[in-house]
Design goal:
alpha/beta; two-stranded antiparallel sheet
Length: about 140
């Protein structure tokens, strides 16, 4: 089963390159399992490791979400897109814009970025940017 999944992994890795890290652990070819992987009851096991909110200077702890859906690249990408954190403010009118501006000022006059889009959902790239630049810019759409 794992070998059948390889082309899908490669498609997924290409689709999310630069926004999500895709890693593969071969339980038959490699030595002892790293503790981070946890217990593996069957193969292939697909898991998402999301960093927990920072506590102090450590972000070593992870939330682990087992993937239980179709083993196709587009389904796995959809799952990743849904799981990706978003720190984007939503502006629907003048009141929201005022709140957005006040929040930026309260947080040390953060630079503000306002995105205009015709899409109904926030893109995974925009979510990635909101996470990567969190607390350095304030992002809204």
């Amino acid at each position: 089963y794992c070998q059948l999944l390889t082309p899908e992994w490669e498609k997924l890795a290409k689709a999310v390159k630069g926004t999500v890290k895709i890693a593969y652990w071969d339980t038959e070819q490699q030595g002892g399992r790293p503790p981070l992987l946890g217990e593996i009851k069957g193969t292939p096991t697909i898991r998402l490791y999301k960093p927990k909110k920072k506590q102090g200077n450590s972000n070593a702890r992870k939330d682990v979400v087992d993937y239980q859906y179709e083993r196709k690249a587009q389904d796995m990408k959809r799952f990743l897109d849904e799981q990706m954190p978003s720190f984007i403010e939503t502006i629907r009118g003048t009141k929201d814009l005022t709140t957005f501006t006040e929040k930026a000022e309260r947080n040390g006059a953060l630079p503000r970025v306002l995105l205009f889009t015709s899409k109904a959902k926030t893109s995974s790239l925009t979510k990635f940017i909101s996470t990567e630049f969190r607390r350095r810019i304030l992002l809204a759409e």
